[in-house]
Design a protein that fits this description.
- This protein folds into 2 domains: 104 residues, Transcription Regulator spoIIAA; 185 residues, Histidine kinase-like ATPase, C-terminal domain (Heat Shock Protein 90, 2-Layer Sandwich), CATH 3.30.565.
- By secondary structure, the chain is an alpha/beta fold.
- Helices cover 38% and strands 23% of the residues.
- Strand 9 and strand 10 form a beta hairpin.
- Helix 6 runs antiparallel to helix 10.
Length: 299
């Protein structure tokens, strides 16, 4: 590690709008630069000083790259946002556990608005803890909310199954909950840095892709639309396979979860608003973002 410390780091500037949802092309290009630098076993220095806007899914995506076991022998350092609100959110995210900041600055303890977890497998305990965290912040007491728990379990299962191969190939996922009690909502992110939905080697996804080709669906945007609405699953006759993603989409349609966004490979999709677009720079993994609002739990 001492030898690595002597290597001049690659200097990267974080996008001023540090958001995968609001600035997808620039942010995905930034992640590619980070992956490339760390993949070459280079140290990086990331400058966030001019960041004027951050969203929680972007912070979680960036953190998941820095914490990736493939890059454990690299060094990460950088500068945090100058803007007070952005600085607070940055420090709350836990990024300083992986990104060394100047010695003269001692980051304050996180305020408790962000909770994060990581794992390789389906973890009911984690799903419960993130649900409990959200309810405690929104209500001051825990409440049952099955739609949130089910969403986490389905996404964990998808990541675990889609990696394929031996257990050594299972992808680590990251999940976070960012509470905005003043706005009556909690923002959730689930991300893995695997191969993405369209390049999954799982048996189920392989069958769905073959069915899509038979139906004349060759575009990834159309594939994702049909995957979300359950049309591909219904055509295969596989009642016990491929149910998770349509179920999550149904929860969004029923507004049990809101502002559902999916980003994978070359597709960016705001599922709740019906906006689908192609990314100029691809994202090798899969990111899910959604919100739970206080009124949804009360209904």
């Amino acid at each position: 590690m001492k030898r690595l410390a002597k290597i001049k780091p690659i200097y990267l500037v974080a996008p001023e709008k540090f958001s995968f949802i609001e600035n997808p092309d620039q942010f995905s290009e930034f992640l590619i630069q980070v992956h490339e630098a760390l993949g070459e076993r280079k140290s990086i220095e990331v400058d966030h000083e001019k960041v004027t806007l951050q969203t929680p899914e972007a912070l979680t995506a960036f953190l998941s790259v820095l914490a990736d076991p493939r890059y454990k022998d690299t060094l990460h350092q950088g500068f945090i946002p100058k803007d007070p609100l952005q600085r607070k959110m940055f420090l709350d995210s836990g990024l300083c556990e992986y990104l060394k900041i100047p010695n003269q600055l001692r980051p304050p303890s996180p305020s408790g608005n962000i909770q994060k977890r990581k794992n390789y497998k389906v973890s009911p305990k984690t799903a419960y803890e993130l649900k409990q965290f959200a309810m405690m912040r929104l209500y001051g007491a825990d409440r049952a909310y099955p739609p949130l728990y089910r969403t986490f379990i389905e996404l964990m299962a998808n990541t675990h199954n889609h990696a394929g191969g031996s257990s050594d190939n299972k992808e680590r996922w990251f999940a976070s909950a960012y509470c905005q009690a003043e706005h009556g909502k909690t923002c959730f992110t689930f991300v893995d840095n695997g191969v993405g939905i369209f390049k999954s080697v799982s048996e189920t996804m392989g069958i769905l892709r073959k069915m899509a080709v038979k139906l004349g669906i060759t575009d990834n945007i159309d594939f994702l639309r049909n995957l979300l609405n359950g049309k591909l699953k219904s055509r295969t006759g596989m009642e016990n396979r491929g149910k998770g993603i349509p179920m999550i989409n149904q929860l969004a349609e029923n507004r049990k979860i809101e502002n559902l966004v999916v980003i994978t490979n070359d597709v960016w999709a705001n599922v709740s608003s019906g906006e689908f677009r192609r990314l100029a720079k691809g994202f090798s993994g899969t990111l899910w973002y959604w919100e739970v609002k206080r009124q949804a739990v009360n209904s």
